[in-house]
Write a structure and sequence with these properties.
The chain is α+β, with helices and mostly antiparallel strands. The protein is built from 1 helix and 8 strands; from the N terminus they run αββββββββ. The chain has an 8-stranded antiparallel beta barrel with strand order 1-2-3-4-5-6-7-8.
Length: 162
């Protein structure tokens, strides 16, 4: 059709926009004196219920991180359960203390997770200005995966001032 971009042209625009967006994000990080870094590993978690309410729950969380992040996490979690199987929500605040790729310090993570009939959405973000010691100024986000055997893994994408 004349005047209308082909599927190939539209696809190229998406790639061009993506590449330009990545370049701008990299340039912004360079201007701020930061570099995008990655950390991966496993972690163990112990959840201890603090309430007996079957709908609105509260728990403490104790974690031991292994891999690029070597340290501990302590946190508080609130949960909301529904009568529909695999639909629920949790929010948590966690303080992580240890060594991240050779840099000591601590930072706070904000968690929010929602399950809609098994479809999961999870957002874990480093709280701005929560970094201490050699992790002062840290920003970023974490993702969590759980394998079929119940083992927990993290991937942390973060930036630190240079």
């Amino acid at each position: 059709m004349p005047g209308r971009p082909s599927v190939h042209d539209r696809g190229m625009r998406v790639w061009t926009v993506t590449i330009v967006s990545l370049w701008i994000a990299g340039a912004a990080a360079a201007q701020q004196g930061t570099a995008l870094l990655h950390a991966r590993g496993a972690f163990d978690v112990k959840l201890t219920p603090q309430s007996t309410d079957p709908v609105l729950g509260r728990m403490t969380a104790d974690k031991q991180y292994h891999g690029d992040l070597d340290g501990t996490g302590t946190g508080e979690m609130l949960t909301g359960m529904t009568p529909v199987k695999d639909s629920a929500v949790y929010v948590a605040v966690e303080r992580v203390t240890g060594t991240l790729n050779g840099r000591r310090g601590s930072f706070i993570l904000s968690h929010i997770g929602t399950m809609n009939r098994g479809a999961q959405q999870l957002s874990i973000t480093i709280v701005p200005d929560s970094g201490t010691d050699q992790l002062t100024g840290i920003t970023g986000k974490m993702s969590i995966t759980i394998d079929k055997d119940g083992k927990h893994f993290y991937a942390l994408e973060y930036a630190l001032p240079m």
